[in-house]
Amino acid sequence: MEDTDKKPIHLGLLIPKEKKKKIKLPERIADLCLKENIKITEVDIHGDLESQGPFDVFFHKVVDIHKDGLSLEETENLIQKTVEYSKRHPEMVVVDDFEVVIKLMKRQYQVEILNQCSMTVDGVSVYVPTTVEIPGNTALDVCRELIERSGIKFPILAKPLASCLDGAHDMKIIFSDEKLFDLPVPCLLQEFCNHGGVIYKVFVIGDRVSMCERPSIQNIDCDPNQPSLVFDTRNVSKTGRAFIPELHGTDPNARAWLSGEENPNMLNKTVIQAIVERLSKVTRFRMYGFDILKDLEGNYALVDLNHFPGYSGISDETFKRDVVNMIKSCAGL
């Protein structure tokens, strides 16, 4: 039963329809919020924001609203509308900082943030694989020069510059200089590191850290004659997807993929805590996730950073508990 003796926490929840379907908010936390005296308002971004508030905590995934079928101009206008609303209410705690969230849409900015986590902890080297940005309309000879100057080695992974627009999951592995003719520019090139076909996803909610393992690309040799591999990362690293022999090596559906609750020692906790402390300080995020590849030497390569990921690798009870505790912490409780 709701505790009416204390002032309720007013939570504004702005989650686009497509994201809402996947993460199932506010439904997943509704009962626990009622118990903890948290009043949820699902914010209509198309309506008057002032009349829907005030809010103690404003919880958003506003950069994903383009997935609801809006044009780029409509998306930008609505994001700006929300940013201006937050500026008029500095007393409201925003989860998370609009400026950093918007910048994080660019993969090069992700790399800059992750590079600040380069360190050695407990004998484990944490690093970002060598990366170089290839601007649009870059001539092939200039592209080769940029690659040579960066010191990046083949095979290399080509990623779209934008991390949250259509096509953001479309990747290409290129094995030699001769295969650069069909490079999808603009793009971000990153040196591919063998990692045993496993990617580790680390999730942060407030001061709580969870993790899980997921299928990834098998170890590959750099055969300069091999054709480039084109793929959608969602078909490679999500459980239950079809076996792709040229990428997976072995069928990922033939084994169990564990969570950190099932295997607490899948990654070095001291190292993970050091990374989380650095990322939380730099981004000021309360909800985010990042991906780790454990290379063949046992070191940790940081390859992706996401604000408000799907959290599909942790249990429902853990997610609900951590989110509600984070909301209470934001409200000073």
Automatic annotation (TrEMBL):
Mg(2+) 2 binds at residues 304, 306. One of its GO terms (biological process) is inositol trisphosphate metabolic process. Residues 18-98 form the Inositol-tetrakisphosphate 1-kinase N-terminal domain. Its cofactor is Mg(2+). SUPFAM superfamilies: Glutathione synthetase ATP-binding domain-like. GO terms for cellular component: cytoplasm. 1D-myo-inositol 1,3,4-trisphosphate binds at residues 19, 61, 169, 201, 306, 310. Its EC number is 2.7.1.134. The keyword Isomerase does not apply. Keywords: ATP-binding, Kinase, Magnesium, Metal-binding, Nucleotide-binding, Transferase. Residues 126-325 form the Inositol 1,3,4-trisphosphate 5/6-kinase ATP-grasp domain. Kinase that can phosphorylate various inositol polyphosphate such as Ins(3,4,5,6)P4 or Ins(1,3,4)P3. This is Inositol-tetrakisphosphate 1-kinase. It comes from Clytia hemisphaerica. The lineage of its organism: Eukaryota, Metazoa, Cnidaria, Hydrozoa, Hydroidolina.
